[in-house]
Design brief:
The protein is α/β, with parallel strands linked by helices. The protein has four helices and five strands, in the order βαββαβαβα. Pfam families: Amidase_2.
């Protein structure tokens, strides 16, 4: 698979979570480092020790607790986040946390999805756990379909309470 693809091939946005303890302030650099440590399922090198499977973080964006969005890959760069079947035609965003996210993260996710839908009018927005042919997962730790049906507003049971 080519490392790059034309924007015209992008069909979906896959929402992920970092599967880190809720409320812990991690960054795209942290996630990139974890993936680079060759811990399954994020093995960067072929089992034979041969060529690199992917050279850096597989997500296009990471949304930190503060709501800051960090770029991991360019839009035209093929992702490495959901297996070849889905990476080829998708973009990926990863929320730091497991199943509870700050209001700032929810707001940034809503703005990102809104902007991407303008750029890609037929964009399907889905959760990693909802992709066909992907092993069962809980990522992200909320139902993307419920979030979309809730006008992309924070799902109360998945809102991280912030300290006063």
């Amino acid at each position: 698979m080519s490392r790059f693809r034309p924007k015209s091939e992008i069909r979906k946005l896959v929402i992920h979570c970092a599967d880190t303890p809720n409320g812990r302030p991690h960054t795209a650099a942290d996630i990139d480092r974890w993936h680079g440590e060759n811990n399954p399922p994020f093995v960067r090198r072929a089992p034979s020790g041969g060529s690199t499977v992917f050279g850096h973080i597989g997500y296009h964006w990471v949304i930190r607790l503060s709501g800051a969005s960090e770029v991991g890959r360019g839009i035209e760069e093929t992702g490495a986040h959901a297996g070849p079947r889905h990476n080829a035609d998708s973009l990926a965003v990863c929320l730091v946390g497991r199943d509870k996210f700050t209001r700032a993260q929810w707001d940034t996710l809503r703005h990102l999805v809104t902007g991407l839908r303008k750029q890609f009018p037929h964009l399907e927005v889905t959760g990693h756990r909802d992709l066909p042919g992907v092993p069962p997962r809980t990522c992200p730790g909320f139902s993307v379909a419920d979030w979309l049906a809730n006008s992309m507003q924070p799902l109360p049971e998945h809102l991280l309470e912030e300290s006063p």
